[in-house]
Design the sequence.
C-alpha cells in the first residue's frame, strides 16, 4: 500500500530526529527560554531580513490561527476569509471559539480576490446599519491555499493595498509555506511576505517537524504580551526546546527548502502521471497537494493499492480526491502509483 | 415629516403605559419572581396550549438569540441559518461571542429551504473530514423573516422534518411573530410553531412593548438552568416586573393580535400606494416590513417628507428601501406618503 | 406587610413615569440616537464638569460590569476585586464569561485596601512565574460597597495612586452611587471620582428608574468602539429613548440627589430603630443598605410583618439580615417596623 | 552547575527517544487514528482495569485542564479548587478563558478539605441569592498537589463522598501522578482514583515524555464528542502518533513507574541533605518536588552552583525555594549539592 493521504504521515525528517537525540540530555529551562529557541528565532529573523520581527513557536496550525486571530481582534471585530479557508471549514469553529466571526467571500481556487474584499468593504461602509454588523478588521489568506494554489505577487500586492486602504490587518497561514515558495512559477519571496503581511506563520508540521509552527509578527506592537495569549490557550510547551531544536535544524543548511523542493518535485511527477492518463485536475496546483476528479470506480480500484483523501463528499459518478507528497515520498511511490492507475475510462 | 424607519420609534402601546403607571407603586420581589410575571407566563402557556412550556422574559432580540443559541450549543456545535439571517448580519457577532459558528445557507427571500439543509447535512455526514468541521446542531429561522416573508405550513413542516431526521434542534426568531401570524395568506398557527419548533420567542419590542421578548422552550429539559445563562449574560432585570406587566397586558384582551393586525393593515395600504404608482417590491412581503426598489432620485425626493431605511448600500441608480409600520402608524401617515410619492419615472 | 428587601421593588419614580407617558408618542430613531439620550449625556457631562467624558446607557448592573470590564481586559488580563465584590459573588460568573479572572483580595467591610493591592502587585512582580499568572490590569471597587460602606477621599486617593504606579486601570461600580454621595460623613465628590477613576457607572435601577445604568469613561480612547461591545453582548436597546428619557429626568432638577437623600434619610431612621432596641450592625453603613445581626427567633417573628433579606446562609442562633430603603420608603414604614421589632433579647 | 529547576529540563526518557526513532518512517493516518495510539489506550485501560474508560491524548497540562473543565461546565457552572491550585495560580486564566469561574477554598498544604467543600456547599444552598451566584459543578484536585503533598485514601474518599452528595463531578490533575503513586506512605491506588474520580489525567511531560498528557474519563458519556473540544481549542496534533508512541512506551515494561520511582528516590536523598543540614521544609512532601525555607544569603550562595526556583516572591530575610528531581536526576547531582550546601546558619 502506498500512502498519499497527507504530508504528516511519518515522524520528523531524519536530520531533525538526529538532532533531538543528540541534544536529548542537555538541560534547559522551560517554556521557550532555552538557547535552541533563541537561536532558531535568530536564524528566522536573519532569513527574513527583519531584526524586529517578533517570533513565537506554537504547536499546531489550528491553535496558531486561533491564537493570532483571537489576539488581533477585539469586540465585534471579524476576520475576512475565503469560504474554502481552513479557518472557515476545517478548524471546528476554533476562531468563533475566541468570540469572533469569520466573514466569508467566495474563494477562487482557494484564493481571495482583492476586488471582492474592496466590494465588501465599500458595501459595509455604505450600509446605514454597519453599527449592528461585525466589523471587518483582519484578512486571512493561506499560501499555498487549501487547494494548493498560489497568489501571484501582483495579487498579493493588490490584497495588501486594499487592506491598507480599509485599515485591515493581513495575516497569512503558511502551514505549507515552503512548498509555495519553491513552486515553479511562484514569484512571491519571503521578503515580499514580510513586507506585505502584518503576521504569518511558517509551518513545521507539514514540512518535516514532529510538530510546531513559527509565528512571525511584523513587530511586537501588533500583539502586546503575545505570550499571555499563548499560555492562556494552553499552547505553551513546558519543554519549549522541542520546538526550538526542530526549527533550528529546519533553518540550518537550508533543510526547510530542501524538504519543500523534494515534496514539490514528487508532486509534479504525480501530477504528470494523472495528466498523462487523461485525468483532469480539480484545480491546477503547483505545490505538494494535487486534486483530481476521478470516476468513482477508478477510486474504488485505486484504494486497493493506495491511500488518499476523498475531498468533500463522494459524488454520484465521480469525486474529487487529494494526493499529497512530502519529504518522505519516494520516486518509487510515484512509479508504483503509475503502475496501478488505469487510463481515464472513456 | 412622516416616519417609517422601524416599528420601534415610539414608546409602548398606550394600554401598556397605563398598566405600568397603575401598578407603579405596588411592591414586588425582583428578578422575575413577581406575580405579574407569573401570570404573564400562564397567559402565554394557555395561548400556546402547552402546560409544560418553559417561558422566560428577556430584554432584547440579539440578547435573546445569543442566550438561547449559546445555551443549546456545546463544544464545536454550530447553528445553521440563512445568509440574510439577523444573527448572521445584524447582531455584531453576538452568536460567535458565545463561541459558536453560524453556518450559512443561501436565503431565498430570507427563508431557509428544507432541501438546502438536507443537502448540507448529507455532504457533512459524507465528508471524511467531518471531525474537523463545526457540528451542525441547531437550525435558526425567523418568522416573519428579515425580509417580511413567511414560511408556509408545508415549508415549516419540511424543515421540522429534516431537523428531526438529522438530529438538529429548531429555533424560531419571532421578533415580529404577531405580524406573521395575522398576515393574509398565512397558514401557520401558534400551535404549529409549538409543535414543530424546540424553542422560539414572541417578540415584544416591535409589537408594542417598551422592551422585552418572551422565550418559549418546548420544556425545561431543553436548557437546564436557563436562568443561569440569563444572569450570566446580564439579561436578568432587577425589576423583572417591567417585563411581566408588559407581557401580561399584551396577552390580555388580545392586545398582541390587535396591534399586529393594525400594523399589517397599514403595511398593506402602504404597499398598495407603491404598487399603484408603478414601483416594484424587492420582495413580496405580506407583513409590516415592505421593501421596494426605488430610483435614487425618488429616494432623494421622498427624504424631504419621510424617513425610512436604505437597505444595504446605495446602488448606482436605484436602491432598496424599507418602510415599516406598527401599532402607531396612522392611516393619515399613509395618505401623506401617497401625496408626496411621485409615479415611477419611465 | 412592609417591604425592605431591596431598592428595586417598585416601578420608577413618579416623575420618570410621567415623563415616559408624556413623550410616549413622539417618534425617534432607535439604538440611542434620539435627542433625549443626547440631552441626558449633556446633562451628565455638565454635572461631571468633563466635556470629553464618553457616556453610554446600558440596561443593568451585571451587564454593565461585564461589558466594561470585558472590553478593558485583553489576553490573560484580570481584574482585582474584594472577595465580597458584586462581580465576584453575585453575577453568576459574568466576568469570567468574558474570559477573564477576578483576582480577589480580602474585603474590609466590603472595601479594598490600597496597601493590600500594593502588596499583591509587589508579590506578582517579584514572582519568577509571573508569565504563567493572570495579569492584573484593572481594579474594581464599588461605591457604596455591597455592604453599604464608603471609601473616604483619602482611601480613594490611595487606591488611585497605587493603580497609577502599577499601571492598573480603576473602575467604580456605582449601582448605588447617589446614596453614597449624599451620605453623612462622605467626603468624596463626583469631581473626585471623575479625576481618580478611569471608568465608573451611575446606577439608575436602584435610584429611581425602571432600569438603566450610565457608564462614564474618562474619554473615548479607553474603550475604542464601545458600542460594538454593547451590541455584541445584547445590551443595546432598540428603544434607546427609554434610557435617555429616564436619565434626562433623573438629572433634571436634581431628582437623582433628591431620591438619594430620601433613601438615606429613611435608612438612618431605620438604623436608629435597630440601635435603640439594642441590635448590633454587622457593618456600620451610612447609606441605604443596613446590615444587622439578629437572633433567628427575632427574624422569625419579624417575618410575619416585614420582608427583608437574609444575607448569606442562616447562622445557628443568629444571622445577618439586610434592610434596604429607597425613594419609595415612607416614614410610616419605619414606624411600623419599630412597632413590631422587639428589644434585643438578653 | 546542577539543575533542579523542574522535571522538564531534558528531552524524553531514552527509551522513548529510541522508540520514536525506530518508528519514525512508518506511515500512519493523522489525528490519533494510528495503531500506536490505539494500543496506548488499550494498555492504559488494562492498567486501570476499566474497559469503558474514555481515553484521549492531549499536549500539555494547562490545555488539558482547560479542555476537560471547559467541556464539563455549562452556563454559570464553576469549578471549586484550592487557592493554591495550578488552575487558579499558574494557568494565566485558561479556565476563565473557557467562560467559567474558579471558586477557591483555602488550600491546606495544597490540598482541599472535604469539610471545607461541604461547608461551602451548605452555605451556597442556604443562600437566598444562590441564583445570582456561580453554580459549583466540579471539584478540581491535584495528586500530588502543587506542593508535592498527597491525599490519603481516607481524605480522597471523603472528597468523593461530598461530591456525590452535592452533585459535583470530581476531576484530578495528575501532571505528576506517577510520583504520587509510588511515594512512601501513599495508600491511594490507580484503581481508587478510577473509582472515585469522574475524570483525571496521567501526566507525561513531567514523567519522561517530550510532551503529552493522557486524559481518562470514567466513560464517554461524561463529555459527549470530546474530540470536538480538543479540535476547537487547537489541541489535536496532526501527527497524533507522537503521543501514541510515547504513551505506549511509557506503559510498556512499567517504564512509567520506573521513572517515577527514580524521581522520588532522588527527591528523598535531596530532602535528607537539607534536613541533615538543619533546614526546614516549607511543606512535608513525599514526592519529587521539595520545598524548603532558606535564608536569602544561603540562596545567593547556592545559586553559584545550582539552579532551582524561588517559590513566590523573595522574602525579607528568607524565602521558599523549590527543588525538583526527575528520571534524569543522578545520585551525583545530589552529592554535588550536598557538597556546596552550608549548614543552616544559626
Sequence:
Amino acid at each position: 500500500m502506498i500512502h498519499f493521504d497527507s504530508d504528516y504521515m511519518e515522524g520528523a525528517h531524519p536530520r531533525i530526529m538526529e538532532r533531538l537525540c543528540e541534544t536529548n540530555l542537555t538541560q534547559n529551562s522551560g517554556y521557550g527560554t532555552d538557547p535552541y529557541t533563541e537561536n532558531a528565532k535568530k536564524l528566522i529573523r536573519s532569513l527574513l531580513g527583519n531584526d524586529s520581527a517578533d517570533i513565537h513557536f506554537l504547536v499546531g496550525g489550528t491553535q496558531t490561527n486561533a491564537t493570532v486571530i483571537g489576539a488581533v481582534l477585539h469586540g465585534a471585530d471579524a476576520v475576512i476569509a475565503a469560504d474554502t479557508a481552513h479557518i472557515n471549514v476545517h478548524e471546528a469553529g476554533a476562531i468563533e471559539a475566541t468570540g469572533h466571526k469569520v466573514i466569508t467571500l467566495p474563494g477562487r481556487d482557494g484564493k481571495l480576490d482583492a476586488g471582492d474584499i474592496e466590494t465588501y468593504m465599500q458595501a459595509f461602509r455604505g450600509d446605514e446599519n454597519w453599527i449592528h454588523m461585525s466589523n471587518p478588521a483582519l484578512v486571512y489568506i493561506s499560501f499555498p491555499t487549501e487547494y494548493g494554489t498560489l497568489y501571484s505577487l501582483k495579487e498579493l500586492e493588490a490584497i495588501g493595498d486594499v487592506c491598507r486602504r480599509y485599515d485591515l490587518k493581513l495575516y497569512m497561514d503558511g502551514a505549507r509555506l515552503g512548498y509555495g515558495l519553491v513552486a515553479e512559477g511562484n514569484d512571491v519571496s519571503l521578503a515580499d511576505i514580510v513586507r506585505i503581511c502584518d503576521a504569518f506563520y511558517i509551518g513545521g508540521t507539514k514540512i518535516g517537524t514532529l510538530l510546531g509552527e513559527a509565528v512571525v509578527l511584523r513587530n511586537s506592537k501588533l500583539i502586546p504580551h503575545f505570550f499571555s495569549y499563548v499560555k492562556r490557550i494552553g499552547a505553551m510547551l513546558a519543554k519549549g526546546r522541542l520546538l526550538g531544536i526542530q526549527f533550528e535544524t529546519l533553518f540550518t543548511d537550508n533543510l526547510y527548502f530542501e524538504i519543500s523542493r523534494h515534496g514539490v518535485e514528487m508532486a509534479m511527477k504525480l501530477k504528470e502521471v494523472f495528466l498523462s492518463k487523461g485525468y483532469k485536475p480539480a484545480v491546477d496546483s503547483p505545490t505538494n497537494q494535487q486534486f483530481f476528479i476521478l470516476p468513482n470506480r477508478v477510486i474504488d480500484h485505486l484504494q486497493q493499492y493506495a491511500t488518499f483523501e476523498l475531498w468533500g463528499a463522494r459524488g454520484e459518478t465521480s469525486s474529487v480526491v487529494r494526493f499529497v507528497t512530502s519529504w518522505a515520498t519516494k520516486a518509487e511511490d510515484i512509479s508504483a502509483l503509475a503502475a496501478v492507475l488505469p487510463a481515464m475510462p472513456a
User: Anything to note?
Assistant: Chain C has 14 helices and 13 strands.
